[in-house]
Design goal:
about 20% strand, alpha/beta, Diaminopimelate Epimerase, Chain A, domain 1, inorganic pyrophosphatase (n-terminal core), single chain, OB fold (Dihydrolipoamide Acetyltransferase, E2P)
């Protein structure tokens, strides 16, 4: 017998929702008198599971307004931000755009650069070096601005926690606009003209924008008062979409509308840099949010993780196809290196946790290593969270200062937990699900002890295994291109609008089941109605499942339905997320 076959606790939606699904199908077929919309039965069950059970709710979800965006002047400080940018343009002052080294900060910097380039005498763009500058606004950028007569600095995806550095510019008469989305500090002043939707006194109605989303709202506001840029705000929606998905912002409300519009732009006519990047990533099909999350964003993030983020920013600002291809090749090399470094850290951390056995902390993990690369700590932490279902913080002692990165689980606000340890940290920031910080090496051990204890107290009520939410049952003969096309209307999928997860019950595993590509389990079987099941579970070898032990066994599969692409043809493809001994009646 295979011990612990399933990796998750399966949380299933109401199995009695079939009557509601039938009613929804009928209602949508009569929709808008003359414009019926056909929903496959499996799709209707998914909508009911997500509480879109009425025709009105389903319509709103499937057909949101083309421009479901809020008035940018609902931001409390937008008037002041617009005046600052307008004054820089009118007085022809040099502008410095200070971004961040991740995909959000890079895209946000490119958005403002494209808009302002040619509108002022000089637009300088700066993205910090993770190793030289650490988290937030870089001191050397402030010193450069002071030495080079900059008239305005716009900080994007950073700045909320950097009041002391911003004050140096303000004291010299240099205005600063902050377009950020990170949590506000509890122990420091906030300076500059701050546009940040998560502020306690903020009046903007949607708190889920990423840094690039806030920069986009600034462009919208400028256009609204008649200030035009070298490009229109609509021309940078592709960058807003990449940043929003890549930063794992919630795909609801305004974000969903922005990402849908950005994806349309990418698929209609991608800019040179994105076209070159997708070519290197092997993407010659329609680009989806999933492609951004798993193929495009990691490549834009890679240089900032393993070397310097400048090539990624240059790629998004490049209009020459030849130079764009050269930069995309460089990003591909950087991404391959990032994968190697991530695997090293993850494998070591996973081994450390497994070796703890019964002494494994119940609340979460705070681990440190002597030679872990700081650029991949966040990715490695995210993989540990996925594997063990607990918040994880990883710290490297490879330099003179300890650098840490953490990822969380739903229900644990990691930034708030860090606030409680502020006196032990040199610098920190982030939000509920992700944080970064620096710490003196002499404080690491005590921090590990204290924070592990904190995590134990806040995770006491969480289940021991991570939860996998199942939306609906799925019969194998319902897996079709009709279902795939319906799911395309539900896009973009991601955080806040998770990809539908289905349960295929009572699959008898057959002998073709095997590992492919090294670590991926290809599951073949017979469904209850005799249909053939063919699903792939990515990176399952580490789970210790032997295909021989599965032969003839009846299992339930938790799957997603994807739009597969092979030899320039699309087909429905099943991705297996989890497997368990069958729970169907009579299967034992």
């Amino acid at each position: 017998m295979i011990v612990h076959l399933n990796r998750y606790v399966w949380q299933e939606a109401n199995p009695e929702a079939r009557a509601e699904a039938d009613a929804l199908i009928a209602g949508m077929e009569e929709r808008l008198a003359g414009e019926p919309f056909s929903i496959p039965r499996a799709g209707a069950r998914f909508l009911v599971a997500r509480s879109y059970a009425t025709t009105e709710a389903a319509n709103e979800y499937l057909f949101p307004p083309e421009s479901q965006t809020h008035d940018p002047f609902l931001f409390r400080n937008m008037d002041a931000a617009v005046r600052a940018v307008q004054l820089a343009i009118d007085d022809q002052k040099p502008v410095l755009i200070h971004g961040d080294y991740d995909v959000d900060g890079i895209c946000a910097t490119a958005i403002l650069y494209h808009f302002l380039e040619g509108k002022v005498p000089k637009v300088s763009r700066f993205v910090p070096d993770r190793r030289k500058d650490g988290y937030g606004i870089a001191t050397r950028a402030i010193e450069w601005a002071l030495a080079n007569n900059v008239g305005l600095m716009i900080a994007v995806d950073c700045g909320t926690s950097d009041g002391e550095l911003i004050a140096r510019l303000l004291d010299k008469g240099i205005e600063v606009v902050v377009c950020d989305h990170h949590e506000f500090p509890v122990d420091r002043d906030v300076r500059g003209i701050v546009l940040n939707p998560v502020g306690a006194e903020e009046t903007y109605p949607f708190r889920g924008l990423c840094g690039a989303g806030v920069a986009y709202k600034l462009l919208q506001a400028l256009e609204k008062v008649g200030v035009s840029g070298s490009v229109s705000s609509s021309e940078v929606l592709d960058l807003v979409a990449i940043a929003t998905v890549g930063d794992v912002a919630r795909l609801v409300d305004e974000n969903r509308s922005l990402v849908r519009a950005g994806l349309r732009q990418i698929n209609r006519e991608a800019r040179s840099g994105i076209k070159a990047l997708t070519r290197e990533a092997g993407l010659d099909q329609e680009i989806t949010a999933s492609h951004i999350g798993y193929r495009i964003a990691p490549r834009l993030n890679a240089p900032g993780r393993v070397s310097n983020p400048k090539p990624a920013l240059a790629l998004l600002c490049e209009e020459n196809n030849t130079e764009a291809r050269r930069l995309a090749v460089r990003l591909e090399h950087e991404n391959n290196h990032r994968k190697e470094l991530t695997k090293k850290v993850h494998d070591e951390v996973s081994s450390l946790i497994r070796d703890m056995g019964e002494n494994r902390p119940s609340g979460g993990f705070v681990l440190s290593g002597a030679d872990w690369d700081e650029g991949v700590l966040g990715i490695a932490a995210a993989r540990v969270v996925e594997e063990f279902g607990r918040p994880t913080i990883l710290i490297t002692r490879s330099g003179g200062v300890g650098k840490g990165s953490g990822r969380s689980v739903p229900g644990v606000h990691l930034k708030e937990q860090l606030d409680r340890c502020a006196d032990r940290l040199l610098k920190f920031g982030g939000h509920a699900q992700a944080v970064g910080f620096s710490i003196e090496p002499v404080h690491i051990e005590l921090f590990q002890t204290e924070f592990t204890s904190q995590l134990a107290s806040v995770t006491r009520e969480l289940p021991k295994l991570p939860t996998l939410r199942i939306d609906s049952e799925l019969e194998i003969d319902e897996v079709s291109m009709e279902l795939v096309d319906f799911l395309a209307a539900c896009e973009p999928f991601g955080y806040g609008n998770r990809t539908p997860v289905w349960k295929i019950s009572g699959v008898e595993v057959t002998g073709e089941t095997r590992y492919v590509g090294g670590d991926h389990l290809k599951v073949f079987g017979r469904a209850r109605n005799g249909g053939k099941v063919n699903a792939i579970g990515f990176n399952w070898r580490s789970r210790g499942i032997d295909p021989v032990d599965l032969l003839g066994r009846k299992v339930d599969l938790a799957v997603t339905v994807k739009k597969g692409y092979y030899l320039k043809k699309y087909y429905p493809e099943l991705h297996a997320l989890d497997i368990r001994d069958s729970m169907t009646e009579g299967d034992g």
